[in-house]
């Protein structure tokens, strides 16, 4: 009997030949499943040190891959490294044809033929763009958010992508920071649930399914706490904030099975995150048992030199690997330095092997060894990209993402016929800005504009006037946005249109590239001449519906004080205009709730609902009339619109809270209930929110924390009882003992329509 075994992708094939009396041979082939860990070990046993280090090296796309091979420069070096098997991943190579070409070099020209993992910033859709993540978070609809991620993954995977640098799960409390548009807002509980939903949407139940992509939780950690809201800036926070606010969404992503993490640009308490061993090895890979791999952010290994933390590239390579950073994104440091660092004893082969094992495992889980070209079918790409299914999915998400901030006089929904409507504003007919930031694969001007969406309802007379230009020129992704601060020539025509109209719909806000990476702002009002235009139109016709397009909370004091109706639409993506028109005309009843507090002034930043009371929380009692309490002399402490806020075209009424018991023992639970009634005239959705306050603890606790919510849809006149189970687990926090625990004592719970609700009940944890 002769036996030969060989690997083909995920299978081990054993061929057994039997010789019967020298007269004939019968062959049988037996297929045996081999665990991925064994396959990885078998492959690593064949790899040279250079090939191992190569797997830890990620390069950006660098030439037209389907064209001729590069002959010189940086592109040639990258190409040569690909052919040698010294590249583990490429990013920003997209399109089935391009990905196939670059994968072909790695698989067919290198010694071992290890396939590449192809990364891309799939932040809110690939070519067909969904709402920005902050907008999606305003839906509070976890299933819709999961589906949105799945839709984006399907379209991107058809274009050759198998790894997304999303979700961003940074908690952020400062609207000045441009990257608030990428996350879920200010709350760790909501942020954790959304992190898990997006991971599950991207990765599905089977990562080898060609419609899924590996997800990446970023940025680890505390990037959203950059000082002054200025991107890339330093972060200095305590253990209490780190564990109770920053880390929970990352832990939720880990528990959801996220395959990769990305560390962040910032330093945290004096240590660049890329070199933070406590974060990466102790917490993530140690305490949490994360078994995927960590990739640096773009060039962050090299940036440790600019931080003043690493002396040179050699030093940076040692610091990064020792801390647990497994893959170097576009710094060229691991590929150039690790071999000599190993020889010097500054890194170990065990650390290199651990990183390589993690990377190869994800590649096996994606099914790349079974078929390196599984994501490279041009016909599949053409059939899926921009398909009816994809567009319907992003439209559904867009509808659910809008937040009705004000609707006095029941100005909304608009009547569908018989009205003269003036549609005014620089963003009313814009087809590019609604795509928002991080839409690299989308075609410019591919969004449905508000004008187009409203024109689909042909019962009204619509006159459109731009009013004023917002930007001087259409900016590129990497350019500063140049705001028009000189030209008001459109004011006259806009005023004329407003004077003749029954209703004025004004579409104002930020240009799509005014939020996102590197887009910090010190002013949070309407940019350019938009505020002046708004006030001038109001003088002529006060029946204004303000439609906001923006990627962050704005200061809207004047609008709130004067306008009858305000609709927050964010940047909704490809189907923007259709979704907005449906809401304006009442074919969809808005149900969104704010995931971030809207300030009264930029001077309130950072602003968040779950603040600490301080030792001087209010000027009352013996201190009445005193200035010696925590406040501003020129503005209220409270937000203009609180976290969790959002109206509907109907009205909901809450009963008092009922409790199944007023004492909670460890291991048990009690039930808190309210009855919610739709007392309006139309069907609507309401997100019932539960907040809890821990009155006394070993470390100071927030005035309240979101601990549950339920979305309820009710017909007009209908009621429903909504109940929440309160358990010891729900009350746990990272305590002064540096563990997660619930401490006995008095608690209050609040149930209502937003974080400022006064509806309260008390209970005791024994």
CATH superfamily of the domain at 399-604: Glycoside hydrolase family 3 C-terminal domain
Task: Give the CATH topology of the domain at 399-604.
Answer: Rossmann fold
How are the strands of the largest sheet arranged? 14-19-18-17-15-16
Sheet with the most strands?
Answer: 6 strands, mixed
User: How many helical stretches?
Assistant: 21
What is the overall silhouette? globular
Written account of the structure:
This protein is of the alpha/beta class and 766 residues long. Among the domains are: 2-34; 399-604, Glycoside hydrolase family 3 C-terminal domain (Rossmann fold, 3-Layer(aba) Sandwich); 650-765, Immunoglobulin-like. Helices cover 28% and strands 20% of the residues. It has 21 helices and 30 strands. Residues 1-8 and 12-28 have low confidence and may be disordered.
Output the keywords.
766 residues, six-stranded mixed beta sheet, disordered N terminus, 30 strands, Rossmann fold, Immunoglobulin-like, alpha/beta, five-stranded parallel beta sheet
